Amino acid sequence: MAQAEINTEALKSEVRQAVINRKANACPMTVRIAWHAAGTYDKRDGSGGTNGGTMRFAPEETDPANAGLGIIRSMLHPVKENHPEISHADLWTFAGCSAIEFLGGPKIPFKFGRTDAENGSRCPENGRLPDAAKGADHIREVFYRMGFNDREIVALIGAHTLGRCHAVRSGYDGPWTRNPLKFDNAFFKNLMYLEWRPRKWDGPLQFEDVETGELMMLPSDMALRTDPKFRVYAELYAKDEQQFFKDFADAFSKLLALGTPSDPKKSTFAEETPKEKATADFLEAAMHGSVAAMKRVRAKADVHAVEKSSGRSALHKAAFWGHDATIAYLLDECKVAVNQQDYNGDTALHDATRFGHDKVAALLLRGGANPSIKNKQGKDALALAAEYDKPHVAALLQRSRL
């Protein structure tokens, strides 16, 4: 799938609505699903990793390390329903990158192109993810298996600046920072600048800050402080947040791409053909009402094409923004389908009505637009005219029915 087919900013808005709402802010766990989907990769045989979206199947789905992540898969379900052209594997990883941005972190370089496996035959065995109870040797074993160096390892573990541990899932309990919904370098500041002691409780070994006992660190976190090579980078990130952001963005992007079609070292990512490029330019020009630009690329473009991510045609785009001259060109010269419905069931007439573009609505009706078509909410154009208080368009629609 060519990346140009996906409106990433629009998709990001849908992800935000799914994971940040009046019920919850689930961004930390959204980052976790992306991390855990990727963290099973083994460079020795290319197994594991995000490609395939295999966390939908046992044994990966039931790995104790993935406890609770079914909640995020369910929260993202409405986004997947709106975008059947996007794989689960791409959606989970894109959502993780987006969640980091939503909480103030860096923008993560990202490519689409992952596919979904049909069953669990490609699931990696349990036990590939880092064990929080172990130290530096184990951490290196896990991350070296994926192809990371010490600097990248420390940067990636910095994701612990988000969220907290829950005893009911991991056995550990408590937050790493005082603001678990902010992506910053507070994890490293706390790790390096506070005093820590083993917590006295009924759970597994973890550490608490000496001053308040309210913050916690895992044994694997403490390895970043005690191991001489790891410590160099932990100190760097505690002092320099921007350097942490840069290194984290690079390492997290690499993590999500390992073993996938979007891995730059072995890419099978589909590049746009000349026709796809011309078609995308044609749709873009229609959105901006530039008939001259549309004419320049028309011979190489598919003027009847729709965006795979939205089902929206050039006519939809022109109608949305009220470009009547563009509408006339599309109908009279390009002979595009006037009653094409998008992902929401809207026709161009629905869009023109909603925003009160009476000249556009008149052209569409003259071109054969059917005002009785209903969208997924069961509303035809006249119902929208009433809902949005567009009396001039309503009058046109009523006359068209006489």
Beta-strand percent range: under 5%
CATH class of the largest domain: Mainly Alpha
Average of pLDDT? 94
Shape: elongated
Q: What would a concise description of this structure say?
A:
It is built from 19 helices and five strands. It is mainly alpha-helical and 402 residues long.
Describe the structure in your own words:
- The chain has 402 residues and is an all-alpha fold.
- 47% of the residues lie in helices and 3% in strands.
- The strands form two sheets. A three-stranded antiparallel sheet has the order 3-4-5.
- α10 packs across α11.
What's the layout of helices and strands?
Layout: H1 8-19, H2 27-38, H3 69-75, H4 77-82, H5 88-102, H6 136-146, H7 150-157, E1 164-165, E2 174-175, H8 186-193, E3 196-198, E4 207-209, E5 216-217, H9 219-226, H10 228-239, H11 241-257, H12 274-288, H13 291-297, H14 314-321, H15 324-332, H16 348-354, H17 358-366, H18 381-387, H19 391-400
Antiparallel strand pairs: 1-2, 3-4, 4-5
What descriptive keywords fit this protein?
402 residues; mainly alpha; Peroxidase, domain 1; Peroxidase, domain 2; Serine Threonine Protein Phosphatase 5, Tetratricopeptide repeat; three-stranded antiparallel β-sheet; two-stranded antiparallel ribbon
